[in-house]
Specification:
About 15% of the residues lie in helices and about 20% in strands. With about 160 residues, it is an alpha+beta fold. The protein has a domain of about 70 residues: SH3 type barrels. Strands 4-3-2-1-5 form a five-stranded antiparallel β-sheet, with no helix packed on it. The structure holds 2-acetamido-2-deoxy-beta-D-glucopyranose. 2-acetamido-2-deoxy-beta-D-glucopyranose binds next to loops.
């Protein structure tokens, strides 16, 4: 049988609207302000066929380089073989959302600045490096008064 390799082939789920987010598009989508240099995620909205980027770019993050009435230009780096190509997409605002990828970093910079200032005032040494979650501390488990429990699945029960 023939097999379609069309522009939207294989996007049945990627481009479908999310559960409980179907229907008319939230007005907030159109009230967001985009500026050149903003980091945005391309998140395609299947309900709008105009200005829809190619399926490869769904879920990719890029930087805004152009803003127009109802669309933004986004620069995205696409991996092609052994190199990255700069791709310039013009997509409608329905298909982008502000990215949260830099939020944590910016917050951390601000917090670190405050911590640094405080440390300078108090004259203490400061460690700002982040630490991954470490293994739990050693501790003793008492067996007295701490009886083992048998865990079994709860029998199936119809509850209404
Ligand atoms: C931004 O988009 C408009 C409309 O497509 C185009 O005329 C203009 O040249 C673009 N500007 C840049 C900097 O690419």
């Amino acid at each position: 049988m023939g097999h379609s390799g069309g522009l939207r082939a294989g996007t049945r789920y990627a481009f479908s609207r999310d559960f409980k987010k179907r229907g008319s598009i939230a007005l907030g989508t159109y009230l967001k302000e985009y500026r050149v240099g903003d980091i945005v995620d391309v998140r395609c909205n299947g309900a709008v066929q105009k200005g829809l980027p190619y399926k490869y770019y769904h879920g990719k993050t890029g930087v805004v380089y152009n803003v127009t009435k109802s669309a933004v230009g986004v620069i995205i780096y696409k991996r092609v073989g052994n190199r990255y190509l700069e791709k310039r997409l013009n997509v409608r605002v329905e298909h982008v959302v502000h990215s949260r990828s830099r939020e944590e970093f910016i917050n951390r910079v601000k917090e670190n600045a405050i911590k640094k200032r405080q440390a300078k005032e108090q004259g203490v040494h400061l460690h700002l490096k982040r630490q991954a979650v470490q293994p739990r501390d050693a501790h003793v488990v008492e067996s007295a008064e701490n009886f083992p429990e048998t865990i079994t699945p709860i029998p199936y029960d119809t509850h209404i």
